[in-house]
Amino acid sequence: MSIRTITFDAIVVGGGGAGMRASLQMAQSGFKTALISKVFPTRSHTVSAQGGITCAIASSDPNDDWRWHMYDTVKGSDYIGDQDAIEYMCQVGPEAVFELDHMGLPFSRTEEGRIYQRPFGGQSKNFGEGGQAARTCAAADRTGHALLHTLYQQNLKSGTQFYNEWYAAELVKDSQDNVCGVIAINIESGETVFFKAKATVFATGGSGRIYSSTTNALINTGDGVGMALRAGVPVQDIEMWQFHPTGIAGAGVLVTEGCRGEGGYLINKDGERFMERYAPNAKDLASRDVVARSMMMEILDGRGDGPDGSYVYLKLDHLGEEVLHSRLPGICELAITFAGTDPVKEPIPVVPTCHYMMGGIPTNVHGQALKLSGGHEGDAQAVNGLFAVGEVACVSVHGANRLGGNSLLDLVVFGRAAGLYIEDALRQGMTQYEPSNDDLDRALSRVRRWDESKGGESVASLRKELQSTMQNHFGVFRKGDLMEEGVEKLANLRERIANAHLEDKSGAFNTARVEALELDNLLEVAEATAIAAAGRTESRGAHSRYDFPDRDDENWLCHSIFDPLTKQLGKREVNFKPKTVDTFQPKVRTY
Amino acid sequence: MVTSVTSLGRNGLYDWLIQRVSAVVIAVYMIGMLGFLITQSNLDFDTWSAFMGSAPMRIANTLLVLSVAAHTWIGLWSVTTDYLTSLTFGKAATKVRLVVQMVIALLLLVYVLWGLLMIWGGA
Amino acid sequence: MKVSIYRYNPETDREPAMKEYELDTQGKDLMVLDVLNLLKEQDPSLSFRRSCREGVCGSDGMNMNGKNGLACITPLSAVAPGVKEGKKPLVLRPLPGLPVIRDLVVDMTMFYNQYEKVQPYLQNNTPAPAIERLQSPEDRAKLDGLYECILCACCSTSCPSWWWNPEKFLGPAALLQSYRFLADSRDNATEDRLSKMDDPFSLFRCHGIMNCVSVCPKGLNPTRAIGHIRSMLLERGV
């Protein structure tokens, strides 16, 4: 077994916000840190985040309190967010956001010179009693772009070793399931290398490309989830997929919730502001799951517009040209490019679009990946050497539904937390687990399988079929029999993908090989999603079933855990024990 | 910071400023000369000779000669460093560039001395 | 419609060649990236970079019928008259002036090197406050038109000065980023930043050709930023 080995203290897989925040932390402290990213880091999907980063920095409201933010997040999660993790995120948040300012992030400003905050969905003051809050810190409508570039710049300054355009293909673990590093392919040359490290941090982002219509970038193929599942690491709450209310109809491109935060609202084909009927108080700033469902109801009831009656509109023109061009300049560009409408004059056609994976690799607040000992109901135990941060992780701060602006906060808070934890562990002496030749061979088998394929179906056609299966069987509204059908289709796809063909086997910048390897990951995520969705027999947050329309706290006030070895769905307790505040008890969720 | 020993001021701002100032001098000179030529209805040698021999014109001509030389050097130096590089000449680029620059420098030196001789030597 | 694409695979091709494709777009005004994705289904060996497909990640900068731009936000109708209707071929080439790795994928190392040279990160040696460093909306407004750069390299690779001196002239993208930090009221490394650009190449090789302005997919103006830096140098040096 001869394969080149490169050794680091820590490796981070993924160059988005979470990965670069983690690598920054470790590189700043002088640890030998590598960041492996399949694209140049500033091309990661964090760059597309628009509206902002939600955090109680008390700029818009000097009396703002992180506990109010915590309350909103717990309620938004439909009570299956872990309260200790949410507490940590909301409490540490301001420090993490101020650090971003010190790093140079060009936040928009208030007259006082402080960071500008805008209202976002699901935000309240005084534990839901004090009306709408404005808590989302923004850099115009390009917050993700500003954040990602700032973090890349700081990593340059701190000497992180970048492996850009390297594709992490498989996790390497020893016979005791301890993680030793990853196998990665240099896309430019085709060389396969073993990256060995004491800590492997997955920050591979989301997997929205399992759906045919998504706001996600083409690179969001669930590589981290795929690698974890193949290595036997379970995933949690993977049935919870957020559909963003305002994706541009047809193109799927995201239009920020900040539009509604700035005063925009949704109308049906009759021009009616329909959210007043579904959420009389919060209206268009209700939580995303609520708004997305309301839009789908309008469309299904025949009040959608367009040739197939398949979309509603986001109205912004009443805000005036000045507000639109200063607060939402990127949206104006996108609407003109992808919808052919100028928001200054006309409403934008929008439709709920797959946006965010709330589930993922279960972790604690330090980012340590967890497995469950003693069966599904047992205690969580750390997977030695493996960490996960950002969208690929399920800490869980988002539970069954993420609030707008909480993803960027999640990235920086937990990227930082994992970095801090690993730093400390490295100082105290972390074990470097050594794989045997067989272990390495096993990790390489998938890459080899594609390279040795001689015939079979094409990657593109299988991918298309997978995406339409997910779109049709696991969308905004779900139904038992339809989902069972979807699960079967995916089982069939698994067999066919195992025999699919990679025609181009060349080394230099072979994107066909990358797409083939990505397809394996899409399948893993899709299958886990499908089985978990069919298994959760209730409606909660983003998971909404016709056959089980109500929330079932008696049976399902818990995380779902998908075990890749048995393909069974288990349960895990939700944490209701925050350290410094009282537990937020589950209540009926209205907006 | 990129170092360069053959640029005029060995400094970007200095070169840029000289380029601009010399351009202004040349422009002003030309406008003045044009004005003189237009206002003279029948220009003969004596008038021209007296005009060019006057002290202000000698100074103006001196400024012109020096400005043209500086302007040309900076401009051509840019041209040589744009086109006579390893992209076009490979390893020989430095030699080629140096030779061309030296030839240009020599010609400009001759031009300046000759010009000064004409302006000040004929009196 | 007809599409003509620059193809080169270093492992099999001795030299690059243009390859012709036929595609039925049903007269739709697709984005150039959509066309490439459809062609990749026909021919999986075609290589190009792409990520966000909405013009914010900067992956798919390329040369379309002679002009640099982002494939994902350039509709066929905007490439050149007649392309959408199929009367004229769509001609796709890699960004000019950079070594080609394969097909439409260029080696951007030189471009990134210049970016790193301008110290593209905030520098401030005063202790950070417990909250954010305050900045007035007016000071923040100075960063508009600068921080939005997506590093797609459309500008630098369309700049003749950068073609001739890619290692000495910083190029429009890096200079725009340099000014983004010079203009930031929270940065106090102005003197150090300026002193690193005061040679005949780094900044002054800009001759105001303004190709950068005409191709920038984000509508930014590097030439103006370069002018601002020159003014700062002038103020400091005179």
Structure notes:
The complex is a heterotrimer of chains A (591), B (123) and C (238). With 591 residues, chain A is α/β, with parallel strands linked by helices. Chain A has 16 helices and 22 strands. In chain A, strands 1, 2, 6, 7, 8, 9, 16 and 17 form an eight-stranded mixed beta sheet that branches. A four-stranded antiparallel beta sheet of chain A has the order 11-14-13-12. In chain A, strands 3-5-4 form a three-stranded antiparallel beta sheet. Helix content of chain B is 80%, strand content 0%. The model of chain B has no long low-confidence stretch (mean pLDDT 92). Chain B starts with 11 loop residues before the first helix and ends with a helix. Chain C has two domains: 2-105, Roll (Ubiquitin-like (UB roll)), CATH 3.10.20.30; 108-237, Alpha-helical ferredoxin (Fumarate Reductase Iron-sulfur Protein, Chain B, domain 2), CATH 1.10.1060.10. The model of chain C has no long low-confidence stretch (mean pLDDT 96). By secondary structure, chain C is of the alpha+beta class. In chain C, a hairpin with a 2-residue loop joins strand 6 and strand 7 (105-106). Chain C has a five-stranded mixed beta sheet with strand order 2-1-5-3-4, covered by helices on one side. Chain C has a two-stranded antiparallel ribbon with strand order 6-7. Chains A and C meet through helix 3, helix 4, helix 10, helix 13 and helix 15 of A and helix 4 of C.
